[in-house]
């Protein structure tokens, strides 16, 4: 899996015709402004309608509360480790209005709100699996962010999305909504993965390669490109974001590294990554891939855990 982190910033004084982007790791420079379409409609409220079953996508386990909680906790821990303890890289000073799109369990939104008591944080998701007793400056909204309008009474300073690769039919439409919902100079930050194993060294994981290739090809046939995070920067620029920064990291797929921190990230990643890969196999196994993936799961898992294979996932 590759996880590209893309983060874009658009500045004040926007010239709607200009767009610049920034990448995460280097310090951002602020620049071109874009004029957002500020929505003045009412804030969304939570409803109790169940989302359509077909919106569950390829990772139904993300929608099963217990599994989601375990996976989300580990992923969150890993993401913070990758970002040196930070929740994001966008240089947003004292944000007032923050939106976490597809918030899942709300773990990021809750921690961000705790660390930024001046901010009002809204987390949106198809499901209401977030804790009922949240901090006073966090609220959760059940919303299909792709199919429903975003109607908020204020523009946002910062919009955050994490692990959304399997979520949307049309991710660009979600990014366009984010662009419209940001204030001039506001930031979007996307932390996502690319499902493409890489290797540091000659030894490869043949079963893992086969599994990922088959699953990615099947997903693409269904209009879900699991490597699309590689195109986020281009998409953001086309939409009109400025100063877009695309930070690509290669993370170890297990604890093969000798560096303590990298090893720790790998030790978390090898716990987090198999679930989604197995789920994708199950999903597509029932949709024409069974002949390709049958019997391959144990070998694929062994490849992922084998520390003599220097597996990397781009992030
Ligand atoms: C892998 S989880 C990521 C959770 C969270 N961002 C995190 O990093 O902890 C993906 C989330 O996207 C949500 N999701 C998928 N499609 C969505 C949509 N159209 N509108 C809102 N949420 C959606 C799912 O319900 C799920 O909670």
Automatic annotation (TrEMBL):
Keywords: Methyltransferase, Transferase. Coiled coil: none annotated. The keyword Transferase applies. GO terms for molecular function: methyltransferase activity. The keyword Glycoprotein does not apply. InterPro entries: SAM-dependent_MTases_sf. Pfam families: Methyltransf_23. GO terms for biological process: methylation. PANTHER family: METHYLTRANSFERASE (PTHR43591), S-ADENOSYL-L-METHIONINE-DEPENDENT METHYLTRANSFERASE (PTHR43591:SF102). Belongs to the methyltransferase superfamily. LaeA methyltransferase family. This is S-adenosylmethionine-dependent methyltransferase.
